[in-house]
Amino acid sequence: MSDLSPLWQFGISDFSTSEPLKNGELIVANGLDFIEPGLAKVAAMSKEDFLTAAARLKTAEVPVLSANWFLPPNLKVVGPEVDDAKSLGFLQIALSRAAHLGAKAVVFGSPGSRSIPSGWAELEAHKQMIRFCRMAAEVIQENHFDLRIAVEHVNHTETNFLNTFAQALAITREIDRPEIGLAADFYHFAMEGEGSDVMREAADLICAVQLANPNGRCFPKPEANIPGIDAFFEHLAGIGYRGGISVEATVGEDFAADCAAAAQFFENHCR
Asked: What global pTM score does this model have?
């Protein structure tokens, strides 16, 4: 494979810590390009703590290209507990902070928020998802934020809604807002047995990319044999994707070592 490093930047999705912007310097010091924080936790920070952490990252020249963990699990976007006023209030804070950090994409997985409750009609959930995404698009447009929501396909072991990339693509086309794009996640492709070549149908929409080793959802190591990963990168290159690729994985005993291993993995496969 040709050198793809001019096209892509490589980062770590760091959402497990109670301090969501804490590890930025460590991630970059171990060979990665950016941190992808959990936005729900960023939104929950006090204003003072957020501004202090954001200033620290800026001074240290640690980019935030994207955010994940969009919504807290208790903020429902489908089902009988949906509260549009509560959702709008959260969106205004969270998206403002994402924009302040410089994020260009917010990955919308959030299975705890979008899973369809037992007895709730899937068609109604579909309509609610569209309404929520259009609400988020309005917040982005009205505030002139330079970012997009990236609807993510999340495998069937985590949610019962939008499990495949093809399903996420279909609803994103239906939402039909420039502020709403797609996330492509290698881990979820693998878990669903879905070929990543389907990304060819979404070249205009993919604005965030994530991955993990499907064997345990762990950090990719340089020596790991991960079936399908090179084809995944080739398909991304083929559609002209430019942007960040983040590792969203379970952290092991040594976070710094995990980051360094991921950096070497990208070096081996993408350069």
From this structure: 0.96
